[in-house]
Specification:
Blueprint lengths: L6 E4 L7 H5 L3 E2 L14 E3 L5 H5 L4 H21 L11 H4 L3 E6 L6 E5 L3 E8 L1 H18 L4 E6 L5 E7 L6 E7 L3 H10 L4 E4 L5 H6 L12 E13 L7 E3 H8 L17 E5 L4 H11 L9 E3 L2 H9 L4 E6 L7 E2 L1 E3 L10 H5 L6 E8 L5 H10 L2 H9 L24 H7 L3 E7 L10 H17 L5 E7 L6 H20 L7 E4 L12 H7 L1 E7 L22
Parallel strand pairs: 6-9, 6-10, 12-17, 13-14, 13-15, 20-21
Antiparallel strand pairs: 1-2, 1-3, 4-5, 7-8, 8-9, 10-18, 11-15, 11-16, 11-18, 19-22, 20-22
Length: 558
C-alpha cells in the first residue's frame, strides 16, 4: 500500500496564488489540507509524477491503458482529416475541457480559453460595478475566450440583464445573468448559492465573512480581487457657490444637523439631501467614511440608480448628494478635506493614490469551489487589459503611472524637511501600497500592484532615475514606535521588489508625519498607513534613522 502524500501542489490559478505560480510543494498533514495562502485544494505531490501514478499497477492494466490511448489518438486523427472536419462533435463531454491557453496582453496573467459547451455565469451585487463596468469587462472577457457573438438584453427586473455569447459555429454558448441590486446582495446570494461571482463597492464585512465561510475565506488572495478604484463624489448643482467641504461638514449636512446652505458658506436656502438606497455599496462606503454612527437624515430622497441621483441633483439648486465618480455627469463635484490635509477633488491621480478622502476600491469575490468560468473571469477582471477597460468606463484603473516632476507631493502643509528634500523634483507613482490590518504583509491589492510597478519601471524608468520607498504610519502610539513601524513596512516593500531585481536607493520611514487623512477615524488611519513610491534623478542618500531612547514595540493593532 502506498504511503499518503506528505506534500501537495496548489490547484489555484498561477496569477491568484504564489504557491500555484511556483508549484511549491506545500506540507499536507491530512488529505483535506488546503493551500495556506489562498485556501484552494492541494494536489498530492505523488500524483504529479508518472512514476507515482503507475506505481503498484499490474502490467496488463498499463498495457491496456496504452492501447486505449493509441486507439483514441487514431480515431481523433481520422476525424480531423480534411474530409471529416464537418463531423459532429460531442458537446456534453467538452464543457469542462480546456481547449487552449491565451495570455492577456501586457498582464502576465494566463487566462485559459474555454472548450465548446454551454455554461452559465451568475454575477450579482453592486450597482456601481454592475451598471457599466461589469458588462464591459464581461464582453471583453467573452471575446477574449473566443466567443464572437455577444448580445445583451434586459432581465426580468430593473437592474438586471442577460448576456448571451456564442462562438462562430454555435457549438459553444454562455449565458451571463447580471443582477446589480447592491453590494449586500453579492454576499447574500453567494451564501445562498444563487451567485457565482459577487460584485462589491466596499470590502466584505465580518458578518458576511461568517455567513459565507462555507465558500472559504472570501478575504483571501484567491477570492478577493480589486478590479478598479473609484472616487465617491459629493455633488451639488453647478450654480451652487459651495465648492469645498470637510468630512465634518458633510457629516452634519447628511445627518440633518445642518439644514441651510448659509451654515456652510453658501447662499441661504434649505439643503435637499439625496442618497443611494440601503442595499448600495456606495451608501455603505459613505456611511463608513462620512456618517459614522450618525443616521442619514430621514428626509433624504433615496435612489437605487446613481445616474438618476446625479441628474436629480443637477436640476435642483438646493440639492446635494453622493455618487461614484463616473456618474458626476451634469452635476458639480466639490473638493473634500479630511483632517490636516488640504481639500482635494476626485481626479485620476488623487483616487489612484487613494489620497482623496472618499476614494474606494471596487471588488469581485469568488468562492474557492466556484466554477472555472467564474474564476477565469475574476482573474481577467484584475488584469492589465481589464484596467484599461475600467479607465474607459470612467473608473480609475490600477496601472500605475509617474507624475510630472514635482507635481504630486502629499497635499499637507507640514511636511518633514527630509521628505521635501528627497521628493523635490521627483516623480511620484500613482499608487500607494497598503498592508493587511495588524500585520506587515501587503494586502491583496498591493501584492498585485508589485508586478504592475515593475512593469511600469521596465517601460518608464529613465536611465539616471532611482527608486525611493517612503513609509508612513498613523498617529496611534509613540513617535519611536510609529517611525519603526513605517520603516518596517517600507523595508517589506523593498524586500518584495528585490525579488524582481529592483533595488531602491532610499527606503525610509517617516512615522506619522504627513497624514493624508484624519487620525480620529479608523478609515482615516488606514489611509495614513502607506508606502509611497517615488522616482528621482538626483543623487540621494538614505536619511539618518530616528534614534529612540528605548525600544518601544509597535502596536499590534496597527
Amino acid at each position: 500500500m502506498n504511503a499518503p502524500a506528505t506534500h501537495g501542489i496548489c490547484t489555484n490559478l498561477p496569477s491568484a496564488c504564489s504557491h500555484a505560480a511556483t508549484r511549491t510543494p506545500v506540507p499536507m498533514s491530512t488529505p483535506e489540507t488546503r493551500c495556506p495562502e489562498c485556501q484552494a485544494r492541494l494536489l498530492p505531490a505523488a500524483a504529479t509524477t508518472p512514476a507515482a501514478a503507475t506505481r503498484g499497477l499490474a502490467p496488463w492494466v498499463i498495457a491496456t491503458a496504452l492501447a486505449l490511448l493509441a486507439a483514441a489518438l487514431l480515431v481523433g486523427w481520422l476525424l480531423m482529416r480534411p474530409g471529416n472536419r464537418a463531423a459532429p462533435a460531442k458537446p456534453a463531454a467538452a464543457a469542462s475541457t480546456l481547449q487552449r491557453a491565451g495570455t492577456v496582453a501586457g498582464s502576465g496573467d494566463v487566462v485559459p480559453q474555454l472548450a465548446p459547451g454551454t455554461q452559465t455565469l451568475r454575477v450579482h451585487g453592486s450597482n456601481t460595478v454592475g451598471a457599466a463596468l461589469a458588462p464591459a469587462l464581461l464582453e471583453s472577457f467573452l471575446r477574449q475566450q473566443g466567443y464572437t457573438e455577444v448580445t445583451t438584453q434586459p432581465g426580468a427586473r430593473l437592474e438586471e440583464r442577460v448576456m448571451r455569447a456564442a462562438n462562430a459555429d454555435g457549438t459553444a454558448r454562455v449565458e451571463v445573468q447580471l443582477h446589480a441590486h447592491g453590494t449586500a446582495t453579492a454576499f447574500t446570494d453567494l451564501a445562498a448559492g444563487t451567485a457565482d461571482v459577487g460584485m462589491a463597492s466596499r470590502p466584505i464585512k465580518k458578518d458576511e465573512l461568517a455567513a459565507t465561510q462555507a465558500l472559504g475565506d472570501l478575504s483571501s488572495a484567491g477570492s478577493e480581487h480589486v478590479i478598479a478604484l473609484d472616487g465617491l463624489a459629493v455633488v451639488v448643482n453647478p450654480a451652487n457657490p459651495v465648492q469645498r467641504l470637510s468630512i465634518e461638514q458633510l457629516r452634519r449636512v447628511f445627518s440633518g444637523q445642518v439644514t441651510n446652505w448659509a451654515e456652510v458658506g453658501g447662499t441661504s436656502g434649505p439643503i435637499v439631501v439625496h442618497a443611494r438606497d440601503d442595499k448600495s455599496g456606495t451608501y455603505d462606503t459613505f456611511k463608513s467614511l462620512v456618517l459614522g454612527k450618525d443616521a442619514l437624515v430621514g428626509t433624504a430622497r433615496r435612489h437605487e440608480d446613481s445616474t438618476a441621483l446625479s441628474d436629480a441633483v443637477a436640476l435642483d439648486p438646493q440639492a446635494i448628494g453622493f455618487i461614484g465618480l463616473p456618474y458626476v455627469r451634469n452635476a458639480s463635484a466639490v473638493s473634500v478635506s479630511d483632517g490636516a490635509a488640504v481639500p482635494l477633488r476626485p481626479s485620476h491621480f488623487t483616487v489612484a493614490t487613494e489620497d482623496y478622502a472618499l476614494s474606494r476600491r471596487l471588488y469581485l469575490y469568488v468562492g474557492r469551489e466556484a466554477p472555472e468560468l467564474a474564476r477565469r473571469f475574476v482573474t481577467y477582471a484584475a488584469s492589465d487589459e481589464a484596467q484599461r477597460i475600467a479607465d474607459a468606463q470612467g473608473f480609475i484603473g490600477q496601472l500605475p503611472d509617474a507624475s510630472e516632476p514635482g507635481a504630486a507631493a502629499v497635499a499637507v502643509a507640514d511636511l518633514p524637511p527630509a521628505y521635501r528634500a528627497l521628493t523635490d523634483g521627483g516623480r511620484r507613482l500613482s499608487v500607494n501600497l497598503r498592508f493587511v490590518a495588524g500585520a506587515e504583509g501587503l494586502d491583496n491589492k498591493a501584492r498585485r500592484d508589485m508586478g504592475r510597478i515593475v512593469r511600469l519601471l521596465e517601460r518608464r524608468l529613465k536611465q539616471d532615475e532611482r527608486v525611493m520607498l517612503l513609509g508612513f504610519s498613523d498617529a496611534l502610539g509613540g513617535d519611536c514606535a510609529n517611525q519603526r513601524l513605517s520603516q518596517q513596512r517600507a523595508t517589506a516593500v523593498a524586500t518584495e521588489l528585490a525579488t524582481y531585481g529592483v533595488r531602491p536607493a532610499v527606503v525610509h520611514g517617516f512615522g506619522s508625519a504627513a497624514p493624508i487623512a484624519s487620525n480620529e477615524t479608523g478609515a482615516g488611519r488606514e489611509r495614513n498607513r502607506r508606502v509611497e513610491v517615488w522616482l528621482t534623478s538626483k543623487a540621494v542618500a538614505q536619511p539618518e534613522a530616528v534614534k529612540c531612547a528605548s525600544p518601544v514595540a509597535a502596536a499590534a493593532s496597527r
